[in-house]
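Protein in question quoted in full.
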Amino acid sequence: MHNGILAFIARRLLQSVFVILAVSLIAFSLFRFVGDPVAQMVGQETSLEDQARIRDSLGLNEPITTQFMTFAGNLATGDFGYSYRTRQPISEMILDRLPATVELGIVSLIISLLIGIPAGIYTALHRGGVLANTILISTLVGVSIPTFVIGIFLIFVFGVQLGWLPTFGRGDVVALGWWKTNFLTLDGLRSLLLPAITLGIYQLTLTMRLVRSEMQDVMKSDFIKFATARGINRRSIHVNHALRNTLVPVITIIGLQFGGIIAFSIVTESVFQWPGMGLLFLDSIRYVDIPVMSVYLVLIALMFVVINLLVDLLYVAIDPRVRSRSETS
């Protein structure tokens, strides 16, 4: 049993290495065509000789293969390099922005789960009902409207018209070592609310529809029919039998949802000027800061790979069928 699990983990880790290398190569190659970083770093009064000297000091005159090998080798040793624009270590820039993005993602995920799972269960058990149809129509609207439109609407209603919530920035934060958190101040929590709702609405609709689909499939299965024929209480069937089997795929997808929230928080962070990694990425695009852009995409890919591996292991742990396949393969 343990040998099968270890082999499964080894295969996933090997696949992960190739994925990270592929993403690194694609990101590094694509960003070579977004513009000249030296032109963004210097003013018009800088001579061509000085620009050439800067370009040479940054290694931009080296062949693309040499630049990529240096970049990949540095990443493998944990050296993310320096920003072309600020000359700060990129690792410090990432660590400074990471808490804002992670906390935004956590709250967004909690909102999507707290609303999405009960709504999915209700719409699955009350098909054709007025409230169930209303919820389904609402989710169609929520998934169809772009995130930035939702954010602007929430800002207009709750920030401008009602004046209840802040519309930009993180508000007051508390430093716990290098981690600056919103969770320990009222102003920080209020600042977190609007961007978290904006980011969580799309994930909420996905969660609700996934739970609804899985719940409907489970309710049609033979063991549910057998439990009903035995006269087991309907509530017990829904909670102890149907819901328990429904949540197995939902639990495994939560990790990937969190990865998606982190990766696609760029628009939300831009709308609310939330000082996270997504806003850092947008700023790096504006100034053609190639090292920051490349490191950001590699870190996002690494996060997805790690989360996917954890989800696979969780699925192996809670589903005996998957566990038996991993042990025999």
Remarks:
- The chain has a mean pLDDT of 80.
- Residues 90-125 form the longest helix (36 residues).
- Residues 10 and 16 are 10 Å apart (CA to CA).
